[in-house]
Amino acid sequence: MSEQNPEIRKGLAGVVVDTTAISSVNPETNSLLYRGYPVQELAARCSFEEVAYLLWHGELPGDDDLEAFEALERGQRDLAPNVRRAIDDIPTTAHPMDVLRTAVSVIGADDADSEFGALADPFAVVYPKALRLLAQLPAIVAYDQRRRHGLPYVAPRDDLDYSSNFLHMTFGEVPDAVVVDAFRVSLVLYAEHSFNASTFTARVIASTLSDVYSAVTGAIGALKGPLHGGANEAVMVAFEEIGSADKAEAWLDDALASKRKIMGFGHRVYKNGDSRVPTMRASLETLVEHYDRPDVLDLYTALEQAMETRKGIKPNLDYPSGPAYNLMGFDTQTFTPLFAAARVSGWTAHIIEQLSSNALIRPLSQYNGPAERHLA
Ligand SMILES: CC(=O)SCCNC(=O)CCNC(=O)[C@H](O)C(C)(C)COP(=O)(O)OP(=O)(O)OC[C@H]1O[C@@H](n2cnc3c(N)ncnc32)[C@H](O)[C@@H]1OP(=O)(O)O
Ligand SMILES: O=C([O-])CC(=O)C(=O)O
């Protein structure tokens, strides 16, 4: 690369910026591996807790490891009173991702030992904070949805697994097993995806030796955008705009004519379909059957087929997860915070990895402003 004619890759498209042992996204084989395991196998057989453990530790837990891990996670699920007060002070006109971002900041400001420190052992420094955030994000997300409906905080239950407790704290009861299972699958699929925009944001912030909470707060900000995690919310908005399957084609033609991006379709890395979609679509199908809502699947399929015909672009994970979260009873604006609650496992695994072999992330740019000039 010469200074005169540097190769510029807008959006870092196709640029390999570092190595990672956490996950591998393989568009050629349409596969996604977490620490070597296909995500479909993990989604079929593992709890979200086991997957978070795998991402952080590099191996699946044995029985004793899992028991100890679950005890730690279940023991820290409740929110401190000042975090709840901070949430209460935020107007309900604020987006739930803004609430989540703020609540994580408050948790970080409460941690008297928030700095990375000497970095002799990044895992030892980051892991307890990562686990605390993983345990507390459901309480923030659930409470925020409830207060918007005038409902009180529901205390966590330590006899429930992560997914069941999350739903219990949101809805005040644990729904049928089929619903809990679809929710668990979504969390496993959302947990990790290599150097996506929010994870890269977390790594950039970690690379300056800032702190875990700043890195996670920044990642939440990056995830909020509709080109990234915000798309699951935007999918539902589009479904509501369309209304029914018979209107999907006309809606799409209008949207494309006005140069709109169709949310939940396309991907920077997968150009021939997102490896996670079939698994999440199968879970959506179980929900459609459970709630007897074939209209949802009809609309899903109609828009997917129209998009394939018009643009040849396939859905990403946000496409099936949006309607799935809607059927479960989550508010549309709560969808991206659910993504964040799962992805905090991946973000923090990457923060540990970044710190374990750190280099300040600071690329170059080519200047194209005015030539040197001087004050008159
Ligand atoms: C879990 C996740 O975060 S997955 C991503 C979630 N985001 C979305 O669903 C938002 C909608 N999708 C998009 O905006 C894009 O597909 C992105 C941002 C995800 C990927 O973008 P890129 O890799 O930069 O692809 P790019 O934007 O260059 O698209 C290539 C072409 O396909 C078109 N295209 C890509 N996605 C879409 C879409 N969803 N709707 C309409 N056209 C699209 C682009 O307009 C572009 O067309 P052009 O060459 O005529 O200009
Ligand atoms: O990898 C990406 O760019 C976006 C994505 O699918 C994810 O973060 O899950």
TrEMBL record:
GO BP: carbohydrate metabolic process; tricarboxylic acid cycle
Pfam families associated with the record: Citrate_synt (PF00285)
Biological or metabolic pathway of the protein: Carbohydrate metabolism; tricarboxylic acid cycle; isocitrate from oxaloacetate: step 1/2
Residue numbers annotated as active site: 267, 318
Keyword annotations: Acyltransferase, Transferase, Tricarboxylic acid cycle
Catalysed conversion reaction: oxaloacetate + acetyl-CoA + H2O = citrate + CoA + H(+)
Listed GO CC annotations: cytosol
GO molecular function: citrate synthase activity
Family: Belongs to the citrate synthase family.
Protein name stated in the entry: Citrate synthase
Organism: Humibacter ginsenosidimutans
Lineage of origin: Bacteria, Bacillati, Actinomycetota, Actinomycetes, Micrococcales
